[in-house]
Automatic annotation (TrEMBL):
Domain of life where this protein originates: Bacteria
InterPro entries, sorted: AAA+_ATPase, ABC_carbohydrate_import_ATPase, ABC_transporter-like_ATP-bd, ABC_transporter-like_CS, P-loop_NTPase
Protein name: Sugar ABC transporter ATP-binding protein
GO molecular function: ATP binding; ATP hydrolysis activity
Keywords assigned: ATP-binding, Cell membrane, Membrane, Nucleotide-binding, Repeat, Sugar transport, Translocase, Transport
UniProt xrefs under Pfam families: ABC_tran (PF00005)
SUPFAM superfamilies: P-loop containing nucleoside triphosphate hydrolases
SMART domains xrefs: AAA
Species the sequence originates in: Metarhizobium album
Ranges for domain ABC transporter: 4-244, 261-501
Keyword set includes Amino-acid biosynthesis: no
Amino acid sequence: MAKLSLSGVSKAYGATLALRRGDLDIEAGEVHVLLGSNGSGKSTLCKIVAGSVRPDKGEVLIDGRPVTISGPQAARALGIGIFYQELSLSEHRSVAENICLADLPGKSGIFVDRAALEARASRYIALFAGVAGEGFSAEALVGNLRADQRQLVEIMKALSSEAPVIIFDEPTSALDRAQVDRFFEILRQLKTEGRGIIFISHRMDEITAIGDRATVIRDGETIRTLKLSETDPAEMIRLMVGENSDLPSAEHELPAAGPSAGAPLLSVRNLSGKGFRDVSFDVLPGEILGFGGLHGQGQSAVLRALFGASSISGGSLELSGRSLAVANPRSAIRSGLAYVSGDRGRDGVIQGRPIVENAAPIHYLKERLLLARPSALRDKVLPALGALHTKFASLAHPIGSLSGGNQQKIVIARWLIERPEVLLLDDPTKGIDLAAKADLFNLIRQLAAEGMAILLYSSEDAELLGNANRILVFNGGAVTRELTGADRTRYNLYQAAYEAA
C-alpha cells in the first residue's frame, strides 16, 4: 500500500490552470523524484501535499485513507513535512530555534524550555557534523550564516518534523559536495526507516544517485512514473519535453541569426558574485542573448550584478571596448544599462504614485532634473507608452489603477524615453497576459533591430526559443552550455539544464 497517493488532483488560479491532472504514489522506503520544467506543476503538487494550497478536484490518500489537507498544520498532523525552495527561516533567531520553530518546547506553559530546545536541535545538528562549516552552532543567529549553512538549517527543520512523508524541493542547490554526500546518507537512513521522500533536483547526477522512481510532470499533467534503474537521462528528458522537442516556439518563428560579426557592445569575463561564478560572454549590438536553465540557477543574480543591484566579487566588464565599473544602479544607468524585473512590486512600480511619475524617473536621473513642466514631461512619456500599447485613462491616475500587464508596460516604457545601450530583462513577462507579452516581445525585437544589445532571462522556454539569437544555459550558478542555430531546441535546453550530457 502506498504511503501517500494523489489521484486526479487539479488546481486553477482564475483562468490559469497550474495543475491539470496530478497523479502520484509514494511508497514507504523510497526516494521518489519529481521531474518537470519550470511551470510544469511540480511545486503546485508539492504545495497541495504540504497543505499550503487547496486542490480544486482530486483525491489524496495517506496509508490508503482519504484525507483533506486543510492547511500546513493539518499536513503536519497527518505526518507530512516539507523543505521549501524559498527558505522560510527567521534570521533573528538562533539555529536551534529555527530547527524547532514549528514546535518549540515549552516550560510552565509560557516560556521556551531552553534546555529541551538545545537537546532536540543538537540531534539534527549532529547529523551534519564536520560539513556544516565554521561558525555553525545551535546558538548562532541564522542571519549571520552563509547561504549553504542556512540551507542546512532548513533541511534540519524539515527533518525535525520526523514526518513519515517529507518533501525536499531543491534542497541541495546551495550545498557543496561534502554536504550533499552527507545529506544523501541521511536520506538513505530515512529509507531504511520506511519513510517516503519526495525529491526535486535540477541535477541529473543527484537524481540518479539517490532516486528510486521518478514521476514526470509536463504542462500540468502527470505523464509517466518510471524506475530510475531501468531508464536513462535522455529518456527522462524526452518525457519532460514531449514529442515536438526540436520545434521552435509556436508563438514566434525562429528569430533571425542576429549579428555574427563586429565588436561586442558588452563583454563579461569571469564574473563572480553571490549565486554565480566565472560567467563569461559577449553581446553584440542588435543581438538578443538568452539566459536559460531551471529557475534560480544564477540567471537573475548575474543580471542584478550587471545593474549594480548586488556586488561583484571577481571578473571584469567592458562596454563598447571601455572598462566598466558598476558600483550601484545609478552608475549603471548613467553608463547606458537598463534593468527590467518581473517582480515589478519589488523592483519596478512606485506604489501610490501617478502613472507619469512611474514612467519618468530614469529621464529625471539622466537629465539631472529637479523640476519639469507637466506638458514637457507628457510629451516625453506618451510616445514611450504608445510604443507598448499601454492602456490608461490619465497620466495622473495612480499606477495601482492599472492591470498587472499595463503596470509592467509602464516600468518598461521608462527606459524608452532615454534609450539605453544594453537592456537587461529579468523574467519580464512574469504575471502578465498573452497580449501584453506579444506587445513586449515585438518591441524587444524592434529595439534589437535598431542596434540595442539585449540580455533576456525567461522562465518560459518558448520565450527564449522564440526570441533569443543565442541561449546560455545556467546550472548551479555557471554557464554549462551555449545553444546557437539549430541547437536551440527544447530538448537541448533541458539536457543542459539537467546536466544529462
